[in-house]
Amino acid sequence: MSAASKTGRRETFAILRTALPVTTGGVLGVLFGILAALCTVALLATSAYLITRAAEQPPILYLSMAVVGVRAFALGRAFFRYLERLASHDAAFRQLETVRVDLLRRLIPLAPDGLGRSRRGSLLSSLVSDVDELQNLPLRVLQPLVTSVGVAAIAVWVVAILSPAAAVGLAIALLAAFLIGTLVAARLAASAERSLAPRRAALVDAVLDYLSNLDVLIAYGAEQSGRRTVEAADAALTRALTARAAGVGIAGASLSLFSGLAVAWSLVAGIPAVSTAGSTLSGPALAVIVLVPLAVFEIVASVPLAASAWRQVRSSAERIAKIAPADVPAELPLDGGSAGWAPQPGAPVLELSGVQATWPGAEQPALTVDALRIETGERVLIEGMSGAGKTTLAHVLVRFLEYDGTYLLAGQDVRNLPLESVRGFVGLCEQVPYLFDESIRQNLLFARDTATDAELTDVLDRVGLGQWLVARGGLDSRVGERGALVSGGQAQRIALARALLRDFPVIVLDEPTANVEADLAESLLRDLLGATNDAGRAVILISHADVPASIVDRRIRISHGTLQSVAPQSPL
Amino acid sequence: MKVRPLDPRLLRYAVSARWFLAGGAALGLATTACILAFAWLITECVTGAIEGRGLTELSPYIGILAAVALLRAGLVYAQDLIAARGAAKVKSELRLGVLDAVRRLGPSFLAERNSARVATLLGRGMDALDDYFSKYLPQLILTVIVTPIVVFVVLLSDWVSAVFILVTLPLIPVFMVLIGWATQAVQRKQWSVLGDLSSGFVDTLGGLATLKIFGREFRQVKRMRSITTAYRVQTMRVLRISFLSSFALELAASLSVALVAVSIGLRLVDGSLGLSVGLFVLLLAPEAFLPLRQVGANFHASAEGVAAADDAFALLDDARKIPADATPALDHGALVSGVLSLRDVTVDYGEGAVAAPVSVDFTPGVLTVLAGPSGVGKSSLLAAILGFAPYSGSVSLGGHPISSSATERGWLAWAGQRPSLSMGTIADNVALGSDKVDLGLVGRALQLAAAPELDPDLPVGVGGAGLSGGQAQRVALARAIYRALDRRCAVLLLDEPSSALDHATEARLLDGLAAVARTGIAVVVVSHRQAVIERADSVVRISPRSAVTV
């Protein structure tokens, strides 16, 4: 096994460990589970004993214990089962706190650039469902496994007291059912299961392709070929599902078979002991050893489900370990320095020299900057085609990406500064600003939680959203899930409003017009740069589109990852 | 939500479901026979041994018992396979049915709903049906078949026990319904709280970069902890009540077995009942409850599955309401040409028309630019021509009226604002909709779309992944140009074709479009860019009042 996959395994198990509630609640849940299962077995055993003993017509006093037992076990089964569910669910939900917080801590140093550049949205939603899946480890894997093994052991022990031969048969049947139900079925189902996830993803991709391109497909008369792609993906998924069922079904069938065989064996072992002259087994005892296997196998029937739940939980943990590795890639900054904030008077507000930056997993640096100096209050446009390295530069400036070379803020080496101080000085308005599914107020307040409503209204006025705020019904109205109720331009304005509230001395605007209708772009840019027009604030505007020369002081061209200064008077 | 054991729409929209039910019923009958045989054989052996019969005498019974066990295992396996196949079949039937329904409802329907949501419904939403088919429905079938037969056999053997069972059995559904109502009442009260709490985690992860920019990431960890605690407290409040339902189930089933056992025991003591009857009934009593208990236990799985299917059914119902297209469509097989005329066309999505009625002619060989302020309805006008938007007025080509439904228009090539590329190579995308890929024409179309540097064999991922915005836009343009040239289309419609292009590339594209127009095609470009307007042969300005040719 390679070192990499070994680390992967270690991380997977570390994640699984965080999902295990080793708490009073968790232990109680398991205990109640075993008690409930024991009651199930005992109910059938005492009932069988009661009936066969009664047939011998003893004085009724001899039966009163059995009568009480039957009633008590019947009540106990339902009662303990209820307690088990409450305790184990409560424990699992408590553990969810640990799991979520642990994941959040892992993701903090990784976000956003360590999380893959292209499919961030779907990646996160699958991550969230994988985390929720981890709850099944205590609930649907360990709980039934521990209960089954515990009850099976106790049942075999009790049967052994009455008839050792029957006990051996029961133990062998249980073991065989267990092995076939888990290992063999897992082997058969595992390969089908492995192909399930990619086939599901392929189906969703094909469906999305069809739905989101429906207008084009109709206009080009190509709906049929789009539908055929979906059909093919669907057929592939159906094949995998059927193949898995063929494997998993063996587990259920083998349980049913071995339960019957265990009963048959108990009869073979018990009948001679009862019917021969010097009988070593009473009639009621025979009924007990014959019927106990039925009840035990009813409990053990949860093992195959637990096995398949385990496979799902483990692959969820594997995916989490892959997306959120505990080791942060070298291309991302882990910790900053610890120097205090001590700006040098007269130094340029921001200065890069000989800086290179590489994306995690990439071979080549995406950005090389020989020299970049930005003075206090300057407005600089950095223009270039998409893919030229503009966003890389923005992410280096706010320390999302690690760099080689020298990066100075107000004359201080950034490497010596804590990450928070850098981010308190240089603010970024992202290309796709994230809006939280909360009120407009909450979406602004986290930038400065001491701001008054008047300040919030003021800042929205400054970015040109004054009327919009009134139309939307004030600060308490919501922005919708992921800002669904807000247009691309409005989102940029809100992002800038946050940056203004925070009062960053340097603001980086990353492609503010990327998701804005072309004819609105220019007025948006004018509004954004107008709003930042404070004395002393430097603005770095990153754009691939046309920007009117009049609104910036200086233009710098970036192409193929390299910065080149353009003389201020250069023609358009 | 309506609680129905079996949704009739499932049978209407998914034919496989009927086969699944029929197969399940047959297996259910065989299973019942096995249960009865198994109980009878055990009883015979145990009572036989107590009466002093030896192993040799009883061994045929034991042999048959083993055979019945084997048969029963086979039935269990068949049941599992049928369930899995049934679920998969029904899912693909519903999936493709919904796909066709969406096709009938048209792109304007998807514009109102989120296409990602429909995709989720067809992907993970349908997976909720797995539990419904593999756990709930088979048990429902068994309940309908096994329980009555077993109760009847008990009645024949010992009517007192049958009365116990018949009295307790109905308690199970009654309790389930009562507790189900209580759960729903609690759930309704907590619903919005629970929704907020569970989406809080997604929101935090999604906005992590933003939180880092503002130095709020570690404060969020604390908030996450309190959100999750609140989530647990609220969820447990609901679960405490909904677990009561399974408590009632277990209690009714096990108490009834206890009552049967005790009553049989007491009657055995006074000799009014034989051991063989007593043991037989004791073994059968739990079997009468088992399927019903399983139905109850899997009731939630069923509710989720039905809820997911509900959305699909609603879509299918909507699509059934759409009348077949009555307007005589222009035969798109024929080579139609001539002037595309719009007369008093207004587009109304139901919120009032934005633009005044538009009347304009698009002439072959002419490059026309539609200009106007954002939001005035330029794209809506294109949607009307494509049949994607309801409109009033008339659209005709060479004097033939054009149908207003969303079908392929053989005379029209179009590229919208979104590139909408599919998985496949660039060549596959450019030649979309044509039976054979003409590589020479693909190259020429890419050239005309100012993208000669793109390799036609380059693979494109979902949603155009792998291409930059400008590249994707030019591939989409090449796709429209390919079609226009390949099919000799009368009209080429382009919506903001240069929005993601720089000046130099835009100029090359305009050269290409002029060349396309020279082949006798009416080229219509929606754009507000000065460079585009300058190259136009004719400019139509759409204003909120009326359209005037300048």
Automatic annotation (TrEMBL), chain A:
Entry GO terms, CC: plasma membrane
Gene3D superfamilies reported for this sequence: ABC transporter type 1, transmembrane domain, P-loop containing nucleotide triphosphate hydrolases
Coarse class of the protein's main subcellular location: membrane
Cellular location(s): Cell membrane
Domain ABC transmembrane type-1: from-to ranges: 27-312
GO biological process: cell redox homeostasis; glutathione transmembrane transport
InterPro entries per record: AAA+_ATPase (IPR003593), ABC1_TM_dom (IPR011527), ABC1_TM_sf (IPR036640), ABC_CydC/D (IPR014223), ABC_transporter-like_ATP-bd (IPR003439), ABC_transporter-like_CS (IPR017871), P-loop_NTPase (IPR027417), Type_1_exporter (IPR039421)
Segments forming a coiled coil: none
Alphabetically ordered keywords of this record: ATP-binding, Membrane, Nucleotide-binding, Transmembrane, Transmembrane helix
UniProt protein name: Thiol reductant ABC exporter subunit CydC
A GO term for molecular function: ATP hydrolysis activity
Membrane topology according to the record: Multi-pass membrane protein
A matching Pfam family: ABC_membrane
Chain segments annotated as transmembrane: 20-48, 60-80, 141-162, 168-190, 245-265, 285-310
Domain (ABC transporter): residue spans on this chain: 350-572
UniProtKB/TrEMBL annotation, chain B:
Membrane topology: Multi-pass membrane protein
Cellular localisation: Cell membrane
Keywords noted in UniProt: ATP-binding, Membrane, Nucleotide-binding, Transmembrane, Transmembrane helix
Chief localization: membrane
Pfam families in UniProt: ABC_membrane, ABC_tran
GO molecular function list: ABC-type transporter activity; ATP binding; ATP hydrolysis activity
GO CC terms of this entry: plasma membrane
Transmembrane spans: 20-42, 62-82, 136-156, 162-182, 241-266
Ranges for domain ABC transporter: 340-550
InterPro entries documented for this protein: AAA+_ATPase, ABC1_TM_dom, ABC1_TM_sf, ABC_transporter-like_ATP-bd, ABC_transporter-like_CS, ABC_transptr_CydD, P-loop_NTPase, Type_1_exporter
Name of the protein in question: Thiol reductant ABC exporter subunit CydD
Lineage, uppermost ranks: Bacteria, Bacillati, Actinomycetota, Actinomycetes, Micrococcales
